[in-house]
Design goal:
Elements (H helix, E strand, L loop, with lengths): L1 H13 L2 H15 L2 H13 L4 H8 L10 H14 L9 H35 L22
Length: 148
């Protein structure tokens, strides 16, 4: 876990909290990781996000109009990287769109955050992490989502 915690610290220092919430909520929902979804709902809520914004981030394609163009770019990129299926999975246009809003370096940092939460999702799912074991949750943090 030492390497995962280092990756976590790396992305936390380089990706904005708002971008990270978008990424972590969406990717955890796409991957069906109940543990990570509950954790990131709690964290977003603690940072002042409403239940509606949290739900919209998890199913953003149905709520695209609720997100600014730069947020949509981040979410689109997170989807592409998460649903990877060969080299054409992340089109150049998707990368260029994130880079337009976040810069080339920022796009790389967003990529690392997407990679990090995908790894955490796989660890939590494989080890059967119980979302009920998390502290500070409210009942809605445990509500299942299925925005696939």
């Amino acid at each position: 876990m030492t390497s995962m915690l280092a990756l976590e610290a790396y992305t936390r220092a380089r990706v904005s909290r708002d971008d990270s919430h978008l990424i972590r909520l969406r990717v955890s929902a796409v991957n069906g990781c109940r543990y990570c979804a509950a954790m990131h709902r709690r964290d977003a809520r603690k940072d002042g996000w409403s239940a509606d914004r949290i739900a919209a981030a998890e199913d953003w394609t149905a709520h695209a109009d609720e997100f600014a163009a730069d947020e949509q770019a981040v979410l689109r990129f997170a989807d592409a990287v998460t649903r990877i299926d060969g080299e054409e999975s992340v089109p150049d246009e998707v990368w260029k769109e994130v880079a337009r809003y976040r810069g080339e370096n920022g796009a790389g940092q967003v990529l690392m955050d997407v990679v990090t939460i995908n790894a955490w999702n796989r660890i939590a799912i494989a080890t059967r992490k119980d979302p009920g074991s998390l502290r500070g949750l409210i009942p809605s943090d445990l509500e299942p989502t299925s925005p696939r």
